[in-house]
Amino acid sequence: MSDVIETLMSAARTADLPQPAQASVRVPLAPTGAEPGRMVHLLGMLVTFKATSAETGGAFSLSELAMNRGAGMPLHRHADTESFLILEGEVEFTIGRETLRRGEGDFIPIPADAPHGFRQVGGRLSRMLSISMPGRAQEGFFLDAGEPVAYWAVPPASSCNFSRVVSAGLRHGIVMLPPV
Prior knowledge:
Elements: H1 2-14, E1 39-42, E2 45-51, E3 61-67, E4 72-77, E5 81-88, E6 90-95, E7 98-103, E8 107-110, E9 116-120, E10 126-133, H2 136-145, E11 147-149, H3 162-171, E12 175-176
Antiparallel strand pairs: 1-2, 1-11, 2-3, 3-10, 4-9, 4-12, 5-8, 5-10, 6-7, 6-9
Helix pairs in contact: 2-3
Protein backbone atom coordinates (compact mmCIF):
# COMPACT_ATOMS: atom_id res chain seq x y z
CA MET A 1 0.00 0.00 0.00
CA SER A 2 2.97 2.35 0.53
CA ASP A 3 3.57 2.29 -3.27
CA VAL A 4 0.01 3.55 -3.77
CA ILE A 5 0.50 6.39 -1.29
CA GLU A 6 3.90 7.27 -2.77
CA THR A 7 2.42 7.35 -6.30
CA LEU A 8 -0.47 9.58 -5.20
CA MET A 9 1.88 11.94 -3.37
CA SER A 10 4.19 12.13 -6.40
CA ALA A 11 1.25 12.86 -8.71
CA ALA A 12 -0.01 15.55 -6.34
CA ARG A 13 3.43 17.22 -6.29
CA THR A 14 3.64 17.30 -10.11
CA ALA A 15 0.05 18.43 -10.69
CA ASP A 16 -0.49 22.14 -11.25
CA LEU A 17 -2.32 22.62 -7.95
CA PRO A 18 -1.98 25.38 -5.36
CA GLN A 19 0.24 24.36 -2.47
CA PRO A 20 -1.34 24.43 1.01
CA ALA A 21 0.35 27.73 1.93
CA GLN A 22 -0.97 29.31 -1.28
CA ALA A 23 -4.52 28.00 -1.10
CA SER A 24 -6.98 30.84 -0.61
CA VAL A 25 -10.04 28.74 0.18
CA ARG A 26 -10.23 25.64 2.35
CA VAL A 27 -13.20 23.38 1.85
CA PRO A 28 -13.45 20.64 4.46
CA LEU A 29 -14.26 17.24 3.01
CA ALA A 30 -17.16 15.78 4.93
CA PRO A 31 -17.03 12.04 5.53
CA THR A 32 -19.52 10.12 3.40
CA GLY A 33 -21.41 6.98 4.27
CA ALA A 34 -22.30 3.96 2.18
CA GLU A 35 -25.05 5.84 0.34
CA PRO A 36 -24.24 6.30 -3.34
CA GLY A 37 -23.44 9.78 -4.58
CA ARG A 38 -24.66 11.33 -7.82
CA MET A 39 -24.72 8.69 -10.58
CA VAL A 40 -24.64 8.60 -14.39
CA HIS A 41 -24.59 5.91 -17.07
CA LEU A 42 -21.76 6.42 -19.56
CA LEU A 43 -20.24 4.05 -22.13
CA GLY A 44 -21.76 1.02 -20.44
CA MET A 45 -20.48 2.09 -17.02
CA LEU A 46 -22.24 3.22 -13.89
CA VAL A 47 -20.25 6.23 -12.63
CA THR A 48 -20.84 7.15 -8.98
CA PHE A 49 -19.33 10.40 -7.69
CA LYS A 50 -17.79 9.80 -4.25
CA ALA A 51 -16.01 13.16 -3.82
CA THR A 52 -16.20 16.07 -6.27
CA SER A 53 -13.50 18.66 -6.90
CA ALA A 54 -15.80 21.24 -5.26
CA GLU A 55 -15.94 19.07 -2.14
CA THR A 56 -12.14 18.71 -2.04
CA GLY A 57 -11.32 22.37 -2.61
CA GLY A 58 -10.26 21.66 -6.19
CA ALA A 59 -7.62 19.09 -5.21
CA PHE A 60 -9.15 15.96 -6.76
CA SER A 61 -12.31 14.06 -7.61
CA LEU A 62 -13.06 10.45 -6.73
CA SER A 63 -15.52 8.26 -8.64
CA GLU A 64 -16.45 4.60 -8.62
CA LEU A 65 -16.83 2.94 -12.02
CA ALA A 66 -18.87 -0.28 -12.28
CA MET A 67 -19.04 -2.17 -15.58
CA ASN A 68 -19.73 -5.49 -17.24
CA ARG A 69 -17.71 -7.23 -19.97
CA GLY A 70 -16.82 -4.98 -22.91
CA ALA A 71 -17.68 -1.66 -21.26
CA GLY A 72 -15.08 1.03 -20.65
CA MET A 73 -13.46 4.18 -21.92
CA PRO A 74 -11.90 4.36 -25.41
CA LEU A 75 -8.38 5.66 -25.90
CA HIS A 76 -8.24 9.34 -24.92
CA ARG A 77 -6.02 11.93 -23.25
CA HIS A 78 -6.50 14.90 -20.92
CA ALA A 79 -4.49 17.27 -18.75
CA ASP A 80 -5.59 15.69 -15.44
CA THR A 81 -3.46 13.10 -13.68
CA GLU A 82 -5.64 10.02 -13.19
CA SER A 83 -5.22 6.80 -11.21
CA PHE A 84 -7.33 3.69 -10.82
CA LEU A 85 -7.67 1.14 -8.02
CA ILE A 86 -9.46 -2.04 -9.06
CA LEU A 87 -11.86 -3.16 -6.35
CA GLU A 88 -13.15 -6.28 -8.10
CA GLY A 89 -13.00 -7.97 -11.49
CA GLU A 90 -10.54 -7.62 -14.37
CA VAL A 91 -9.85 -4.59 -16.56
CA GLU A 92 -7.58 -4.22 -19.57
CA PHE A 93 -5.78 -0.87 -19.79
CA THR A 94 -4.06 0.66 -22.79
CA ILE A 95 -1.48 3.26 -21.80
CA GLY A 96 0.34 4.67 -24.82
CA ARG A 97 1.13 1.57 -26.88
CA GLU A 98 1.22 -0.82 -23.91
CA THR A 99 -1.69 -3.06 -22.94
CA LEU A 100 -2.00 -4.32 -19.35
CA ARG A 101 -4.55 -6.71 -17.87
CA ARG A 102 -5.11 -5.96 -14.18
CA GLY A 103 -7.32 -7.27 -11.39
CA GLU A 104 -8.48 -6.79 -7.82
CA GLY A 105 -6.14 -4.69 -5.70
CA ASP A 106 -4.07 -3.41 -8.63
CA PHE A 107 -3.28 0.31 -8.81
CA ILE A 108 -2.80 1.95 -12.21
CA PRO A 109 -1.39 5.52 -12.30
CA ILE A 110 -1.83 7.53 -15.52
CA PRO A 111 0.30 10.67 -16.04
CA ALA A 112 -1.26 13.86 -17.39
CA ASP A 113 -1.65 13.91 -21.20
CA ALA A 114 -0.84 10.18 -21.55
CA PRO A 115 -3.04 8.40 -24.11
CA HIS A 116 -5.03 5.77 -22.20
CA GLY A 117 -8.23 3.79 -22.18
CA PHE A 118 -9.69 0.71 -20.53
CA ARG A 119 -12.31 -1.99 -20.93
CA GLN A 120 -13.73 -4.68 -18.71
CA VAL A 121 -12.48 -8.13 -19.74
CA GLY A 122 -13.49 -10.44 -16.89
CA GLY A 123 -16.44 -12.76 -16.66
CA ARG A 124 -18.14 -10.83 -13.86
CA LEU A 125 -18.81 -7.25 -12.79
CA SER A 126 -15.76 -5.02 -12.37
CA ARG A 127 -15.59 -2.06 -10.02
CA MET A 128 -12.77 0.42 -9.66
CA LEU A 129 -12.07 3.77 -8.09
CA SER A 130 -10.89 6.60 -10.33
CA ILE A 131 -9.07 9.53 -8.78
CA SER A 132 -8.50 12.53 -11.01
CA MET A 133 -6.36 15.51 -10.05
CA PRO A 134 -7.63 18.18 -10.04
CA GLY A 135 -10.73 16.46 -11.40
CA ARG A 136 -12.93 19.26 -12.72
CA ALA A 137 -12.58 18.18 -16.37
CA GLN A 138 -13.39 14.53 -15.67
CA GLU A 139 -16.44 15.40 -13.55
CA GLY A 140 -17.75 17.82 -16.16
CA PHE A 141 -17.24 15.24 -18.89
CA PHE A 142 -19.02 12.47 -16.96
CA LEU A 143 -21.98 14.75 -16.20
CA ASP A 144 -22.16 16.19 -19.73
CA ALA A 145 -21.77 12.91 -21.65
CA GLY A 146 -23.59 10.59 -19.25
CA GLU A 147 -27.26 10.00 -18.50
CA PRO A 148 -28.24 10.77 -14.88
CA VAL A 149 -29.72 7.84 -12.96
CA ALA A 150 -31.37 7.68 -9.55
CA TYR A 151 -30.64 4.03 -8.74
CA TRP A 152 -27.63 1.71 -8.71
CA ALA A 153 -27.76 -0.33 -11.93
CA VAL A 154 -24.95 -1.11 -14.36
CA PRO A 155 -26.07 -0.43 -17.96
CA PRO A 156 -25.42 -2.78 -20.91
CA ALA A 157 -21.92 -2.46 -22.37
CA SER A 158 -23.38 -1.47 -25.74
CA SER A 159 -25.31 1.57 -24.47
CA CYS A 160 -23.57 4.64 -25.89
CA ASN A 161 -24.15 7.80 -27.89
CA PHE A 162 -20.56 8.17 -29.08
CA SER A 163 -21.02 11.53 -30.85
CA ARG A 164 -22.28 12.92 -27.52
CA VAL A 165 -19.20 11.46 -25.79
CA VAL A 166 -16.80 13.04 -28.31
CA SER A 167 -18.52 16.45 -28.13
CA ALA A 168 -18.62 16.43 -24.32
CA GLY A 169 -14.97 15.41 -24.24
CA LEU A 170 -13.94 18.37 -26.40
CA ARG A 171 -15.89 20.77 -24.18
CA HIS A 172 -13.97 19.49 -21.14
CA GLY A 173 -10.48 19.07 -22.60
CA ILE A 174 -10.74 15.30 -23.11
CA VAL A 175 -9.68 14.23 -26.60
CA MET A 176 -10.80 10.84 -27.95
CA LEU A 177 -8.04 9.12 -29.94
CA PRO A 178 -8.03 6.43 -32.64
CA PRO A 179 -6.98 2.93 -31.51
CA VAL A 180 -3.24 2.21 -31.69
